[in-house]
TrEMBL record:
Source organism: Arcanobacterium phocae
Protein name: Polyphosphate glucokinase
PANTHER family: POLYPHOSPHATE GLUCOKINASE (PTHR18964:SF146), ROK (REPRESSOR, ORF, KINASE) FAMILY (PTHR18964)
Keyword Kinase part of the UniProt annotation: yes
Source species, domain of life: Bacteria
GO molecular function annotation: kinase activity
InterPro entries according to UniProt: ATPase_NBD, ROK
Lineage of producing organism: Bacteria, Bacillati, Actinomycetota, Actinomycetes, Actinomycetales
Sorted UniProt keywords: Kinase, Transferase
Pfam family, one: ROK
Protein family according to the UniProt entry: Belongs to the ROK (NagC/XylR) family.
Keyword hit for Repeat: no
Length: 256
């Protein structure tokens, strides 16, 4: 395996529990070799997170010209994070792209984690060649969303913060982390997820709904408890979609 090939990029996914990366084959979105993961320290300062990203990038023996894309668990508007739910509040107002670029020592493209997953699913996965409105929901520490219309992403939708009829934010009610924390059975958790899907369907009328995040590997076990008007599918790339999407966007920006 020669990771110095031009048709690869590095994708790094900053999550609430781990920061993981891989070299990605751009033609297919497949990861080349193993992921490298470092646990996310609790409430770590932005510089600490950025330094872990550097370590993950440096783990891979790629050329310095290999594009680097990083997913971030918050909206990213022209590089800046306007609000964040599940990492240190010091990120608010910060230009995260500049921070990562400085620490990693080469240009880094940063985008929202669910948007990265949505782009990867649109390019390589379950949303490939889907016309109409596709929504990807990532179920992890929080709930992320990507809205893709005829293959084009509308960035920074934040459906995990929708208020449900019970007065709670969607991600506080039905994120995968809540299932673990409250020790819910898959059926109990899926019943909660149904409340989120009802709200999303009412507001956006998607044609296709794709569920991602680590729990999507168990889609067959819980999808029977869910009912939607839209076609409901598991993410084809499961929880590697963020890494693949980040790599894809980084390579596209490097070519511009
Ligand atoms: C953030 C989103 C993110 C999601 C999943 C939410 O709390 O606001 O931007 O996509 O978590 O990490």
């Amino acid at each position: 395996m020669d990771q110095k090939l031009a048709n690869v990029a590095i994708g790094v996914d900053i999550g609430g529990s781990g920061i993981k990366g891989s070299v990605v084959k751009l033609e297919t979105g497949e990861l080349i070799g193993d992921e490298f993961r470092i646990p996310t320290p609790e409430n770590a300062a932005p510089e600490v997170i950025a330094d872990i990203v550097r370590q993950v990038v440096e783990h891979f023996d790629t050329s310095v010209d290999t594009p680097v894309g990083v997913t971030f668990p918050a909206p990213v508007i022209n590089g800046v994070c306007p609000m964040i739910a599940n990492l240190n509040q010091d990120f608010v107002g910060m230009n995260v792209s500049d921070l990562m670029t400085t620490h990693v020592g080469r240009p880094v493209v940063v985008l929202n984690d669910a948007d990265a997953a949505g782009l990867a699913e649109a390019e390589f996965g379950a949303a490939h060649s889907q016309d109409g409105t596709t929504i990807v929901l990532t179920l992890g520490t929080g709930i992320g969303s990507a809205l893709v219309r005829d293959g084009v992403l509308v960035p920074n939708t934040e459906m995990g913060h929708l208020l449900l009829p019970n007065g709670l934010e969607a991600e506080k009610w039905a994120a995968s982390s809540i299932r673990t924390k409250e020790n819910l059975s898959l059926e109990q958790w899926a019943t909660r997820l149904q409340d989120v899907l009802n709200m999303v369907e009412m507001l956006f009328s998607p044609d296709t709904l794709i569920l991602g995040g680590g729990i999507s590997t168990r889609f067959a076990e819980f999808s029977g408890f869910l009912s939607t008007r839209a076609d409901l599918e598991p993410a084809r790339l499961f929880n590697t979609a963020g890494i693949a999407g980040a790599a894809l966007v980084a390579s596209q920006e490097a070519q511009d």
